[in-house]
């Protein structure tokens, strides 16, 4: 596909986000099975379910504009997954792995927030009201999850420091 118009860019970036969300869903499943704290695991599993809905929202947006998602990687999310896997392979303690997983998940959320803000802005410029609503729904979920992750990270850090 040629990338010549703002719509082409919008489809390209939405496609990358669609791919990234699929990788994130797999990564959340992987992480939830490795963390030591059941509350963190539950939160990751819940966000995995939200991620599936976010994928459906992206697919509805493609449908609304009459476009088909492109195939291709989402390099940023792939890199974050690789970073987590490499760290887990270093055999950290369960608590340290959980802290790292929380930090990695927070990095993912901030990437997603930036990506969705950009997509919402492009949808607004193009007057794609259906996409605006769908993408803003995803953005709001990402912002809420980032806040939860920040609270979990802070609380877990306090607990870990209290035992040292």
General description of the model:
By secondary structure, this protein is mostly helical. Helix content is 83%, strand content 0%. It has five helices and no strands. α1 packs antiparallel against α2 (38-65), α1 (6-32) packs antiparallel against α4 and α3 runs antiparallel to α4. It starts with 5 loop residues before the first helix and ends with a helix.
In round numbers, the mean pLDDT is 93
Q: Give the H and E element order.
A: HHHHH
Oligomer: single chain
Number of helices: 5
Give the biggest sheet: none
Compute the gyration radius: what is it?
17 Å
Proportion in helices: over 70%
Q: Between the first and last Cα atoms, what is the distance in angstroms?
A: 55 Å
Overall, the morphology is: elongated
| Content of β-strand | under 5%
The structure class reads: mainly alpha
Number of strands: 0
Q: Give the low-pLDDT segments.
A: none
């Amino acid at each position: 596909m040629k990338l010549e118009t703002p719509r082409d860019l919008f489809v390209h970036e939405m496609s990358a986000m669609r791919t990234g969300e699929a990788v994130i869903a797999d990564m959340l499943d992987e992480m939830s099975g490795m963390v030591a704290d059941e509350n963190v695991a539950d939160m990751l599993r819940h966000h995995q379910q939200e991620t599936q809905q976010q994928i459906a929202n992206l697919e509805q947006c493609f449908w609304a504009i009459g476009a088909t998602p492109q195939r291709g990687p989402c390099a940023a999310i792939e890199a974050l997954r690789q970073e987590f896997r490499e760290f887990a392979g270093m055999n950290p303690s369960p608590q340290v792995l959980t802290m790292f997983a929380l930090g990695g998940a927070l990095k993912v959320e901030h990437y997603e927030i930036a990506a969705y803000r950009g997509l919402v802005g492009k949808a607004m410029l193009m007057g794609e009201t259906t996409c605006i609503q769908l993408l803003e729904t995803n953005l709001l979920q990402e912002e809420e999850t980032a806040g939860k992750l920040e609270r979990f990270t802070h609380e877990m850090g306090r607990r870990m420091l209290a035992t040292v």
